[in-house]
Amino acid sequence: MKQISIRTKTLLAIMPLLLLVMITLSWISYHYSHQIIETELNKQMVLQLNVTLEGFRTHLNSHKAIGEALARFSDKGGTSISKAQYAEFLKSVITSNPLTLGAGIWFEPFQYKADMQYFGPYAYKEKGQIVYTEDYEKPDYNYPGQDWYKLATNTTQPVVWSAPFYDELTKITMITASAPFYGENKKLMGMATADLDISELQNAVAQTKVGENGWAFLLDKDGTYMSDRDPAKNMKTKITEDSNPSLAEVGKEVLKSKQGRTLFTNGSKQYLLYYAQLPETGWILALAMPAEELYTPLNNLLVRQITVALVAIVLVFIGIILYARFITQNISEVKRISALMAEGNLRQEMMVNSRDEFGQMGQNFNSMIINLRKLLHKIIDNSQQVAASSEQLTASAQQTAKATEHIAITIQDIASSMENQTGYAGQTTDSVNEISAKIFNVNSDMQVVTDMTLKTAQKAVEGYKVISHAINHMDTISEKVGTATGVVNVLGDKSREIDKISSLITNIAGQTNLLALNAAIEAARAGEQGKGFAVVADEVRKLAEQSEVAAKQISIIISEIQKETGKAVQIMSESTNSVQNGIGLFTQTKSTFEEIQEAIQTVSNQSHSIAQTIAGISQGTAQIVNSVQGIANSTTETSASIQNVAASTEEQTASMEEIQAAAAMLATLANELDEAINRFQV
């Protein structure tokens, strides 16, 4: 199964959470910003609507005041004021408002004079002049039948606004503020009107800037375009009949609700539409703006948020990589030391470079290595003591064997003087037979010890051969390193000779360059005849310069070769020293194996001698059995003595066997302990 690194695990643990947090924060910020921007846009658009409508209202009120002033003037003067006076008053009043196009006084038929059906003096502006006319008094115009007149006949309002209309006389689109005036008994006497040229208002609406690519348009109360960015629609097209079906459908909602916010599409784009009504006239001002302009700041904010999030993710990713690398480096050091410990190498300790938990772990690890090293030293010392104790036990067993031999001799002496004690001799024979069996077992155990000693000696010889082979191999390596050092030294000498040659080439090239320059000068002096020679001299000079450059490059390369050769000589020298040190260590190991081989040989000889001794004891015991069988009866006192001696002999023989077994076990444990400890390098 493939291992997953700590770096990968850290990234898998942190990056999804970081991405989730970044996405959540970005969404919350985007959503909150969307609400704020949309709210601010609504406020801004409503404010722009109100400001524009307030401007319209200001102009309309200024114009409406003229109609009211004319009506109040007519209320007071009525028929007592002459036409000339009305004309002068009209001329003076229309100059008070720059947007007022004209004004008129319109009496009901036959009200001004019984013999005059229409009385309608009118003054208007034309090319900077005030023009007075009575053309509207003509019967074919029939001003009482006009909409602007009929609207005010039955109103309770002081002023009534007409719908926009096109005047044939002035060739201007205008609206009329009609103010009725009354005679006695509140009888309608006629109308005072003030006409407003709406071209200024149309231009103001057309020039209204809505966002970056939006526009404004003005509708009358019936939905007819009064002003639009497309002049062809002005006073001709209703919004409900617009060529854009989406806007035409929205127009129905606009005319119905009078004020609000809605959406429509134009091609593939979506537009926001804010609209409000001017109550005095019933006009509706609408502001259209592409919806994408609302979302442009949001999109820019989203891009910035994504950029910041990506930068943050990259920085966190780099931080995780660096931190994971720091952790991996510390863990790699622990892994390296633990691998060496697993192989038994306790000589190295961890390098502690930090003061954090990893540093504390490294210090604890080093403390554990030091404690293990001390423990192994104690075990080595104790194993040596165990080996010494086993040797002492073996010596004690040998002494016990000698004592048993003396006892056997004593029994033989007693047996020679007890020829007549046959009955007791049988019991003695049984005891001696048991002793013989014990001695036989001891002989078998000693044979096993002898065989193990021989095998150990063979292993020591094999180790001695391996060490000798390694020493020969190291000598060969030393000779090869010496030869390589000589070759590198020769290479250094050759490179110095090449450096001298390149310096010589550089000098020759410089001199050649000077000669070529002199030759070129002489050729120039020779004039036309020396042109060919001048070309050759110039080529020689170029070759000399190229040779000089090449020689300098060779000199640089030779210098680098000399530096590398010096490094190689130094490395070869260090390698030679390392090989010599290795040869010295292997030579010491060889000497140690020779000592081990001699010690094992000594142990083998001693084991063989012990085996021969035990064999001799076995033979002597057999002779004792044969001798005791010839003993006859003895006295009761002598028999008791012999029995006591035999019992003592049996006890000592048993003790000797136990001691030998314990010594053998201790020796085995000591060997196993030495083998286990030899795996560790302390």
From TrEMBL:
GO CC annotations, alphabetized: membrane
Keyword Transmembrane helix: yes
Occurrences of domain HAMP (ranges): 325-377
Pfam family of the protein (one): MCP-like_PDC_1
Gene3D superfamilies membership: 6.10.340.10, Methyl-accepting chemotaxis protein (1.10.287.950), PAS domain (3.30.450.20)
The keyword Membrane appears for this protein: yes
Alphabetical keyword list: Membrane, Transducer, Transmembrane, Transmembrane helix
Residue spans crossing the bilayer: 12-32, 306-326
GO biological process: signal transduction
SUPFAM superfamilies xref list: Methyl-accepting chemotaxis protein (MCP) signaling domain, Sensory domain-like
InterPro entries, sorted: HAMP_dom, MCPsignal_dom, Sensor-like_sf
Span of domain Methyl-accepting transducer: 396-646
Origin: domain of life: Bacteria
Family of the protein in this entry: Belongs to the methyl-accepting chemotaxis (MCP) protein family.
Protein name: Methyl-accepting chemotaxis sensory transducer with Cache sensor
Organism: Sporomusa malonica
